[in-house]
Structures are given as structure tokens and as C-alpha cells.
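PROTEIN DESIGN WORKSHEET
SECTION A - STRUCTURE
LENGTH: 346
C-ALPHA CELLS:
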């Protein structure tokens, strides 16, 4: 019988809140652990449901980390063909696990891969997916997952449900939810599933990270205490290199606006804002960034904001704790020089 999004499923068959745990080499990405914390909260609201995790081609050590961060059960998909990522095969394997364990809710980190995978998995499972949620709640009457995300360019919030189909799927960007405390006394079940997938149609030969090379030795924007971010006002890739120099001196890292990423000056992984990362640094220095609402959404939790911009009326200036009116080409080299002087005096 053909299945469509409008064909209701038997909701009673679906239990628990599960999370896709994305790997970064031989460790789990923080976003999966952040989602485990949220999953526990949602599971409690569902009357103590089980919290599960799925890792593709992961290790028992990774599964244990997931348990320490809130999972009750972790499935490791064991298939040597899945060591390197390709979306179709990963989605097929993950969908098979979801079909077997039938979680009520399935959450995915909104990374570049996660967003791609989420769409493939939802399509395979013929269920809905809400991308880039900024909040997740349980409707106490219906038990539906309320998938809340910004809309109309970030000016309003939409609440979306998947009332007919299961699992209810949502992706959430890194840094939106806090990472739960690691508790090595937690115990859980680790299951290895040998999942067969049809012969691969694509194979990864090599990965070339062009812009990533420049920032490879700097921490990710989500975890740094100091973030120096550049926007279109930098005018060139050279301008971004100046920010890298300043960030290194401050033991911080670099971020970028969407426009700086689009210009090809900074890698996508450094983008801050509605469709980039949400950050909570102690100090955020915005250079050549106007402060569009979609950018501000990513820095609302920053403790102190310094903006450098020749336009005193740019929105970022109103949102900054310290607004420096001027050309970054004059201000940043001076700042670098002063910091070096102070360092040398010590
Ligand atoms: C659905 C949607 C999602 C989006 N998601 C994001 C997102 O995640 N992140 C994001 O950043 N944007 C996002 N945007 C884009 C956003 O609306 C803005 O277009 C973008 O943030 C502007 O980038 P910017 O501040 O670098 O460039 P601009 O708005 O062009 O600002 C450049 C600034 O540089 C200043 N400037 C010029 N010369 C100098 C100089 N010499 N020294 C110092 N300053 C100088 C200018 O005065 C200006 O204020 C999104 C938009 C939409 C519609």
C-alpha cells in the first residue's frame, strides 16, 4: 500500500527519544551530546521514556561517552563500508535502526552533514522534519513534539508538529542547548547492529579543506571564550587573515558573518547566526559586521560585545557594550601592536 505523510501511523508502537550522534574522527561531536541533554528533558516530560543514541561506524568508547552524557541505550552501526561519510548510505543505515527501535522522537545535530542526513532520513521514513529548531517542547495534552524555529527572516517563531507520522524529527544547530554534565557513574546498554546497505553508489576518495587550513589550529567558535568575527566590511580575504592574527594573540578564535563566508574569506564552519553557529563567548569582537537580526541571533548569549565599524548607526553598534567607530584597517593593527607590547613587558 502506498505510504504518504498523510497516512497516520500507530503512535503507540513508537517509544523513546533518540539522537543521531555524529562523529568527528574518533570522538563524538558536542552537538550530539547537547541533544542527549535535551532528549533526557523531553523523555522525562513523556513519563520517563528511554533515551537512545545511534553512532555510525563508532566505537564502544564513544558509546560510553554518550551514556555518560545521558543515553540509556546506544546502537553502534557496524559496517566497514560506512567508515567514510556519504549521505545516501548513512541515511539508509540510520533509517534501518530507527525502523527497528521505533523512537517517538529522533533528533539530529544541525551540522552541515546533519542537515543533509536529516532530509534523507525523513524521506526514507516518510515522516516530517523541522530544520534548525531553537526550542523543543512536549505538548502535555497530545504528547506531540513542538518543534519551534525562527521564521520570516528570524522575526517570528513558528511552532511545527508532526501529528500523523512517527518518528517526529527535528534538527538543532550546535550550541543551542547546553551540553549536559558528564557523569561517568551512569550505566546503559551498548548494542552493535550489523546493518547491511545496498552496494555503494558513491565512494569518498579524498577531502580537501581549502579555507579550513587557515583556521585549523584555532578552536571552534562554539567553544572559545573570545571570538573575533569578520563581515563584508573586511573587504578582502587579507582582512580576515588580520583577524586570525588578533584571535591567536588573544588565545581566542575567529568567526564570520554569512557575507564573509559567501565571499569565500572564511569557511562555513565559522559562520555565526541563524543559519550558522550559536555562540556564548565571554568576549565577542565584531569587525565589519552590520549586525543584521540573523547574525545577532547567534551572539545573544555573548557576555561582552565590542563592535568596530565606521558607521555609528549600524545595528551592531546599538547591541554592543563597546562601539568603536572607525576603519578596522587602522584599528586592528594598532590593537595587535598594543597587545604585543603588553605581552613583551611581562
Ligand atoms: C534566512 C536568512 C538566514 C541568514 N543567516 C545568517 C547567519 O547565520 N549569519 C549571518 O551573519 N547572516 C545571516 N543572514 C544574512 C544577514 O541578513 C545579513 O545579510 C548578513 O549578516 C550581513 O553580513 P555583514 O554584516 O558581514 O555585511 P553587511 O551587512 O554588508 O555589513 C558590512 C558592515 O561593514 C561595515 N564596514 C565597511 N567598511 C568597514 C571597515 N573598513 N571597517 C569596519 N567596518 C566596515 C559597514 O559599515 C557595514 O556595517 C541570513 C539572512 C537570511 C534571510
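SECTION B - SEQUENCE
RESIDUE ASSIGNMENT:
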Amino acid at each position: 500500500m502506498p505510504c504518504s505523510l498523510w497516512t497516520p501511523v500507530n503512535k503507540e508502537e513508537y517509544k523513546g527519544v533518540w539522537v543521531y550522534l555524529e562523529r568527528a574522527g574518533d570522538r563524538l561531536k558536542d552537538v550530539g551530546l547537547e541533544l542527549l541533554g535535551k532528549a533526557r528533558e523531553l523523555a522525562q516530560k513523556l513519563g520517563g521514556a528511554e533515551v537512545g543514541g545511534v553512532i555510525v561506524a563508532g566505537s564502544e568508547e564513544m558509546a560510553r561517552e554518550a551514556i555518560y552524557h545521558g543515553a540509556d541505550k546506544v546502537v553502534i552501526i557496524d559496517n566497514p563500508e560506512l567508515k567514510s561519510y556519504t549521505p545516501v548510505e548513512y541515511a539508509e543505515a540510520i533509517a534501518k535502526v530507527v525502523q527497528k527501535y521505533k523512537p517517538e522522537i529522533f533528533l539530529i545535530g544541525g551540522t552541515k552533514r546533519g542537515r543533509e542526513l536529516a532530509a534523507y532520513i525523513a524521506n526514507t521514513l516518510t515522516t516530517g522534519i523541522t530544520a534548525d529548531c531553537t526550542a523543543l517542547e512536549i505538548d502535555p495534552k497530545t504528547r506531540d513534539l513542538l518543534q519551534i524555529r525562527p521564521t520570516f527572516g528570524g522575526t517570528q517563531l513558528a511552532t511545527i508538529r508532526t501529528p500523523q507520522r512517527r518518528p517526529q524529527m527535528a534538527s538543532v544547530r550546535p550550541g543551542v542547548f547546553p551540553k549536559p554534565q558528564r557523569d561517568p557513574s551512569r550505566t546503559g546498554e551498548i548494542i552493535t547492529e550489523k546493518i547491511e546497505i545496498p552496494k555503494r553508489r558513491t565512494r569518498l576518495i579524498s577531502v580537501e579543506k581549502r579555507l579550513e587550513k587557515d583556521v585549523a589550529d584555532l578552536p571552534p567558535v562554539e567553544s572559545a571564550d573570545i571570538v573575533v568575527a569578520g563581515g563584508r566590511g573586511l573587504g578582502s580575504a587579507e582582512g580576515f587573515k588580520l583577524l586570525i592574527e588578533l584571535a591567536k594573540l588573544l588565545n581566542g578564535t575567529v568567526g564570520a558573518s554569512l557575507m564573509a563566508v559567501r565571499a569565500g574569506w572564511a569557511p562555513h564552519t565559522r559562520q555565526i547566526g541563524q543559519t550558522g553557529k550559536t555562540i556564548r563567548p565571554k568576549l565577542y569582537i565584531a569587525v565589519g559586521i552590520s549586525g543584521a537580526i540573523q547574525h545577532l541571533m547567534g551572539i545573544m548569549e555573548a557576555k561582552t560585545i565590542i563592535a568596530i565599524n565606521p558607521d555609528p548607526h549600524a545595528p551592531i553598534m546599538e547591541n554592543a557594550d563597546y562601539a568603536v567607530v572607525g576603519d578596522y584597517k587602522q584599528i586592528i593593527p594598532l590593537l595587535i601592536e598594543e597587545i604585543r607590547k603588553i605581552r613583551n613587558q611581562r
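SECTION C - NOTES
The first strand starts at residue 17 and ends at 20.
The mean pLDDT is 94.
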